[in-house]
Structures are given as structure tokens and as C-alpha cells.
Amino acid sequence: MKHYKVIKTDDFKKDFKKLDNSIQILILKYIKKLENSTDPKAYGKQLSGNLAGEYSFRVSDYRILAIIKDNELKIYAIKIGHRSKVYDIQEIQYNLKK
């Protein structure tokens, strides 16, 4: 079985640093769960509209927005934020480093 690797973008890292320590711990545990999974899509919700092609993963009241690349076995974590604000972004821009 092959497992996925989570790649954290600069935007994700910036948002992550702003979170309380207790939330950071929950998120790191969740990321570890995704990395140990052979099917991370089963844990998330596929988004539509402006965020089509992305997935949302729920961690308490926070959401991780990510792109899953099955052919690379990588999950690009692009954004994290409170559920009331994370989707308000007009357009999320990111660079996927290979």
C-alpha cells in the first residue's frame, strides 16, 4: 500500500502559525492521519464553484483546503482557517512546488 505525503504551502504555514497551540496539535494529528491513509479523499469533501478541484478537511471548527494529486501521491495543503472565514477568499492563489 502506498501512502500520501502532505506538502504544506507557504500560505498554509503562515495561517498555521497564527493558530492557538491546541488547534495546531489537532491539525498536526489530522495531517498524520491523512499521510497514513491510502484514500485521503474519504476524509474530505470535494469543493465546487471557485474552489472546484480542491478538498476541504474538517478539524474541529477549522478547515484545511487542499489539492490531492493521486498520480504523485501528494496532498498540497494550501490554506487553513476557521470555517466561517476560510471560504470567503475571492481567489486562492498558490504555487505547487514539485
From TrEMBL:
Gene3D superfamilies, per database record: RelE-like (3.30.2310.20)
TM annotation in the entry: none
Record carries keyword Plastid: no
Keyword Membrane: no
InterPro entries: RelE/ParE_toxin, RelE/ParE_toxin_dom_sf
Family matches, as SUPFAM superfamilies: RelE-like
UniProtKB keywords: Toxin-antitoxin system
Any one Pfam family match given in the protein's UniProt record, by short name: ParE_toxin
Family of this protein: Belongs to the RelE toxin family.
Name of the protein: Type II toxin-antitoxin system mRNA interferase toxin, RelE/StbE family
Organism from which the protein derives: Fusobacterium animalis
Biological classification of the source: Bacteria, Fusobacteriati, Fusobacteriota, Fusobacteriia, Fusobacteriales
